[in-house]
Task: inverse folding
């Protein structure tokens, strides 16, 4: 098939998959893009239909439904789950509601896609895993949405590691730097409220880098030593919000920030490789700077999300006189996902990760195979985050990460 062509559509329309989504802000818009586009690029065994979008504000969710392409709007997630035209519930809400919605949806016989981090606590994540295991026996499947696994360069990096091209793993280095909270005048939002977000940069950004590191290496983290910091402890309360009580500053009412601004931790993988992680939302000048490097006995690779169509790879088995890091432009039809997109050299973007996520999930549902990342994968990340918080509370004491026994 020519690389300029999309995959051939089936002669007959595939069975319908009714999708209902809870939440319509940043992640809701990204997931909507994925659901709208996947079947127009890839030949899917099921036909996603955007059945209903849910949000608490009737007028706002109605506008979002029209803009994002949803057929109907609901203001109660329980009503969304009860709809007969919804086969899968996509959860794009703050973390404090993930467990309740996911468990209810699975018990109602729906498939579930839940945004990361899986939950706000290990206990909630464990309950979600148990619900997913029970639902799996009945034919309902659940997946957690770590979309960076679906960057073609990251998926290709996983292939190289799995093929043994790096040899014995020795180092893992990951950073995720943003700057949107650098200004102390930035307003207080739900992401800065521990009761809603669970944690700050740790859960928001750290969850991504922990999952990506464990995915690429194929190994869990087994222990960490951590530091966290909140640099701005109070921020302006948005006008009209009564959610927080705090002091009154020169710019008006201030409310307490109850999560971390930055997290820094080291650790070990199951094989003994050393790992370092940094996640911050106060790195001035950094917008979405996720970088990763793996070093092994036979080679190294590095990835930068701000250059997401590229992978740097070094084969240490080559002669020293000509060896070095090579830039691989991950746009060939042989690379993950690329056969259905554009000619070589025509790069993809952030939104395509959600298209690939929808594509992979639909294929798993149609075949009855467990989609990945699983809720168990989400729980493993949650356990790492909890160990980081525990270690930081104890002034960087090395903290083992509990491992799943089944």
Result:
């Amino acid at each position: 098939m020519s690389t300029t062509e999309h995959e051939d559509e089936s002669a007959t329309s595939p069975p319908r998959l009714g999708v209902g989504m809870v939440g319509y802000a940043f992640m809701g818009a990204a997931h909507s893009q994925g659901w709208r586009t996947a079947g127009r690029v890839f030949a899917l065994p099921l036909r996603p239909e955007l059945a209903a979008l849910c949000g608490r504000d009737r007028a706002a969710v109605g506008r979002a439904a029209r803009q994002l392409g949803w057929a109907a709007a609901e203001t109660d997630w329980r009503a969304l789950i009860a709809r007969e035209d919804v086969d899968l519930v996509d959860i794009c809400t703050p973390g404090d509601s993930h467990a309740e919605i996911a468990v209810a949806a699975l018990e109602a016989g729906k498939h579930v896609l839940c945004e990361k981090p899986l939950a706000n606590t290990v206990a909630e994540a464990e309950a979600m895993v148990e619900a997913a295991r029970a639902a799996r026996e009945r034919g309902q499947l659940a997946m957690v949405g770590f979309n960076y696994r679906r960057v073609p360069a990251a998926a290709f990096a996983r292939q190289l590691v799995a093929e043994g091209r790096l040899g014995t793993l020795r180092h893992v280095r990951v950073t995720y730097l943003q700057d949107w909270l650098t200004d102390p005048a930035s307003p207080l939002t739900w992401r800065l409220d521990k009761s809603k977000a669970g944690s700050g940069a740790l859960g928001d950004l750290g969850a991504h880098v922990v999952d990506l590191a464990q995915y690429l290496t194929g190994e869990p983290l087994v222990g960490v030593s951590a530091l966290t910091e909140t640099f701005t402890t109070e921020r302006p309360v948005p006008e009209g919000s009564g959610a927080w009580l705090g002091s009154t500053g020169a710019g008006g009412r201030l409310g307490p920030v109850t999560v971390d601004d930055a997290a820094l931790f080291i650790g070990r993988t199951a094989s003994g490789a050393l790992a370092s992680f940094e996640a911050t939302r106060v790195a001035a000048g950094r917008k979405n700077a996720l970088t990763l490097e793996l070093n092994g006995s036979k080679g190294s690779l590095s990835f930068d999300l701000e250059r997401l169509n590229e992978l740097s790879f070094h084969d240490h088995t080559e002669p020293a006189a000509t060896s070095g890091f090579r830039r691989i432009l991950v746009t060939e039809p042989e690379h993950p996902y690329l056969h259905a997109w554009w000619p070589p050299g025509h790069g993809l973007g952030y939104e395509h990760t959600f298209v690939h996520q929808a594509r992979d999930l639909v294929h798993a549902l149609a075949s009855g195979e467990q989609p990945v990342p699983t809720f168990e994968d989400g729980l493993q990340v949650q356990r790492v985050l909890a160990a980081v918080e525990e270690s930081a509370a104890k002034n960087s004491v090395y903290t083992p990460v509990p491992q799943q026994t089944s």
